[in-house]
Input
Amino acid sequence: MPSILENFSLKNLNTFGVEAIARWYVEINSEHDLQVLLTDAKWFDTERLVIGGGSNMLFTRDFNGLVIRVNIKGIEYVVKGTEVYLKAGGGEVWNDLVNYAVDHNFAGMENLSLIPGSVGASPIQNIGAYGVEIKDIFYECRAFEIETGTIKIFNLNDCVFSYRDSIFKTQFKGKFIITQVTYKLSTLQNINTSYGAINEELLKRQISTPSVKDISQVVSHIRISKLPDPSTIGNAGSFFKNPIIEHERFLILKSEFPDIVGFKIDETRFKLAAGWLIEQCGWKGMVFGNTGTWKNQALVIVNHGQATGLEIFNFSHKIIESVKSKFGIILDREVNII
Output
């Protein structure tokens, strides 16, 4: 049986660095650990919370239940022709896996460099950045079903991926724990430079034929220039989702706000830049008590030292109300609120 700790501080296990106490805490290092733990009748009716890197959550209270930290490790791959099947344990640090792929010259992950969090969380959130999402490279994952104590395999279609969403956040929320993920990469240099800032930085570096490593380094440079390092100032990256609206509504907003930033998704929908909306409402770089928005990116809320989770949550509510008042757009939080 894995060791169960009581009244455990989660401050160092969430990237906001806010204090929260777990009534019970356990670290899981294998699928067997999960089976032993969750077939114990003691935990059947106990509230549970699964965490990885703690990079996409905000604790607004203590957790009066069992916090399960997935720490299952291991990386391996199989090459079939030009296809690479890269498999990693759910507890691996996401950026470590990206670096592994880049070092082996496997294409597909490089645009997702420096995203905080764990491998196991990547399909849940359908993480994405700079023109690439997990759904673009996902092959399958192994997931422990809490109710039955069995392992199930989910393929790309099973996961029902959409923007920052998957079946693990909707129909199967709280029902599965992802233990391993396999990604489908390539030995071919299938470089994606669709995101404008990447091309601008490549031009500055006088790189005309970029490699996987070049893209990873450029993306890392862009992220560092815009986003704060969670190890030095508490944050969870982008706090809000970019809102998606109908084409007709975008045209109406465009007529009123000619500089509005939006990206065409398809013939009927546009994605708005939440950071731009927030900045237009005057929130960029705002300090509000112990919290505020990041000076270089209004989409990021930071902990300036001693902020509580509730303080950060209330601050985010003020931003939501402000954007709603000015643009009629309701922002959704990307961060999970506990």
